[in-house]
Amino acid sequence: MQVLLLMYQDEKAIQKLPREEFGRIHGAFVAYVDALKKAGVLLANQGLGPTAKARTVREATVLDGPFAETKEQLAGYFLLDVPDMEAALAWAKRHPTLAHGAVEVRPVWT
Q1: pLDDT (tens digit, 9 = 90+) per residue, 68-85?
Q2: 84, 108, 100, 90: which is closest to 29 by C-alpha?
Q3: DSSP per-residue codes, 11-30
Q4: Contact, 24 vs 94, CB < 8 A?
Q5: Per residue in 18-76, pLDDT tens?
Q6: Closest residue by Cα to residue 78 from 38, 109, 48
Q7: Which residues contact 10 (CB under 8 A, 6 or more apart)?
Q8: In this structure, which topology does domain 2-107 adopt according to CATH?
Q9: How far is residue 15's CA from residue 45's CA, in Å, rounded to a whole number?
Q10: What is the 8-class DSSP label of residue 90?
Q11: Given 14, 40, 60, 102, which is the most exposed site by the fewest CB atoms within 10 A?
């Protein structure tokens, strides 16, 4: 089963973190990615650029920004291949984003 772990974070809050805290978070991500690779479940992962550079297309109209009415923005994803949803949730519960945001677990349409 393939699932996406979608990372949601408050961009402004992340940008204001002290350098040491940001370094700690980066280290947690490196360890998390290493664990996913070692378990053989990581297919892909990527962070996303800032929402200020995003564009939204609706009915052939291009708008600046995502215009999300939320405090947190989509920051990136991890594509995993796991046996079932319980395994996906177990990985999500270990995700470093949980220290400053949320992780949505969504099955990939097959």
Answers
A1: 556 778 889 999 999 999
A2: 100
A3: HHHHHTS-HHHHHHHHHHHH
A4: no
A5: 999 889 999 999 999 999 999 999 999 999 888 888 877 777 666 666 555 567 788 89
A6: 48
A7: 71, 72, 73, 100, 101
A8: Alpha-Beta Plaits (3.30.70)
A9: 21
A10: H
A11: 60
